[in-house]
């Protein structure tokens, strides 16, 4: 039987490889990303280029780089896989959201520990048949995965003008100081006070926000340590290695040997959900999105992204 695309149309596997190539640092690594051997990758790429009649990869570039034709084709390939996912999700939803998979990105402790658990818990109670899968990645990686349709929804820092978004929380910076430290006895601290003491700089998601706080105060901290793990920062502070500033939502309720202090003037960031197109979410993702909006409204968070 003849198909609308004809007998020589690209295969989904070949088009999946093109998606992987768009964000890979090598042809072989792109294939490995989707479970293909180097020889299978090379064969699939040549077959796709032959079928389409154009070269998709610039072989003279120092790393993987799509040709103009490849860049023109790529958005349509992404739309194709988004439509396929929507078809599968809609079919699953025909039995009342009793089955299906929803993939969500989380940018770190703030979202994984504080923001997602209540959303996930409520969603599972309403739709126990939906398989919720959370992937913890850096903010930029979540953005790329949303673009490539590897994730439907991501928890990100706002604003993100290139996505549809809904704000779900306000995350303020707080100072972390050792118990018994001179700053532990004051009600609030400012950037100038913090800059007088050895500083432990976070390399987590709030690093840029911390830098802007000091920049606005026109003062530079004396950085003694640079750490990426929250537990490491808390332990170093507790042992008197210095003071630190981190996002409040990333902190445990309490940690032995440290005190949390509000910073004035307040420095905060908005955190929210992002997706490529709110109107084209799968039924499960749309239900999760709606739940997040209701929770934000209940908490009094402005939902505008």
Brief digest:
By secondary structure, the protein is α/β, with parallel strands linked by helices.
N-end to C-end Cα span: 48 Å
Number of strands: 9
- Overall helicity: 40-55%
Q: What is the CATH architecture term of the largest domain?
A: 3-Layer(aba) Sandwich
Question: What spatial form do the alpha-carbon principal axes imply?
Answer: globular
What is the CATH C level class of the largest domain, in words? Alpha Beta
Biggest sheet overview:
9 strands, mixed
- Please report which band the strand proportion falls in: under 5%, 5-15%, 15-25%, 25-35%, 35-45% or over 45%: 15-25%
Work out the helix count: 10
Element order: H for helix, E for strand: HHHHEHEHEEHEHEHEEEH
| Rg from Cα | 24 Å
Number of domains: 2
Unreliable stretches: none
Structural class: alpha/beta
In CATH, the topology of the largest domain is named: D-Maltodextrin-Binding Protein, domain 2
On the 0-100 scale, what is the average pLDDT? 90
What features would you describe in this structure?
The protein has helices spanning 12-21, 27-33, 38-52, 68-93, 109-126, 139-147, 191-195, 207-216, 230-238, 283-299, and strands at 101-106, 131-136, 153-158, 164-178, 198-202, 222-227, 243-247, 258-262, 268-275. The protein has 305 residues and is of the alpha/beta class. The chain folds into two domains: 12-87, Arc Repressor Mutant, subunit A; 96-305, D-Maltodextrin-Binding Protein, domain 2 (3-Layer(aba) Sandwich), CATH 3.40.190.290. Strands 1, 2, 3, 4, 5, 6, 7, 8 and 9 form a nine-stranded mixed beta sheet that branches. It contains ten helices and nine strands. Helix content is 41%, strand content 20%. The chain is globular and about 75 Å long. The N and C termini lie far apart (48 Å). Strand 1, helix 5 (109-126) and strand 2 form a beta-alpha-beta unit. Helix 1 (12-21) packs across helix 3.
């Amino acid at each position: 039987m003849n198909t609308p695309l004809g007998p020589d149309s690209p295969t989904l596997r070949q088009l999946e490889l093109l998606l992987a190539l768009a964000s890979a640092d090598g042809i072989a690594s792109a294939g490995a990303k989707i479970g293909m051997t180097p020889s299978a990758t090379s064969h699939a790429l040549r077959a796709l280029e032959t079928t389409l009649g154009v070269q998709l990869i610039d072989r003279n570039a120092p790393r993987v780089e799509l040709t103009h034709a490849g860049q023109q084709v790529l958005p349509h390939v992404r739309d194709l896989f988004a439509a396929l996912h929507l078809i599968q999700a809609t079919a699953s939803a025909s039995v009342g959201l009793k089955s299906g998979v929803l993939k969500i990105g989380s940018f770190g402790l703030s979202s994984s520990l504080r923001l997602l658990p209540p959303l996930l818990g409520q969603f599972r109670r309403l739709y126990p048949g939906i398989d919720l899968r959370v992937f913890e990645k850096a903010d930029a990686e979540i953005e790329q995965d949303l673009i490539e349709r590897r994730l439907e929804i991501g928890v990100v820092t706002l604003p993100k003008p290139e996505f549809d978004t809904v704000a779900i929380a306000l995350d303020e910076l707080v100072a972390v100081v050792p118990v018994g430290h001179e700053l532990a006895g004051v009600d609030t601290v400012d950037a100038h006070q913090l800059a007088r003491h050895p500083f432990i700089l976070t390399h987590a998601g709030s690093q840029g926000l911390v830098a802007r706080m000091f920049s606005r105060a026109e003062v530079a901290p004396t950085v003694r340590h640079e750490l990426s793990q929250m537990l490491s920062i808390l332990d170093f502070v507790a042992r008197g290695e210095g003071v630190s500033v981190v996002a409040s939502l990333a902190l445990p309720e309490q940690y032995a040997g440290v005190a949390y202090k509000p910073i004035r003037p307040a420095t905060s960031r908005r955190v929210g959900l992002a997706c490529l197109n709110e109107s084209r979410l799968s039924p499960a993702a749309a239900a999760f999105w709606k739940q997040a909006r209701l929770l934000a409204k209940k908490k009094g968070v402005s939902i505008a992204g």
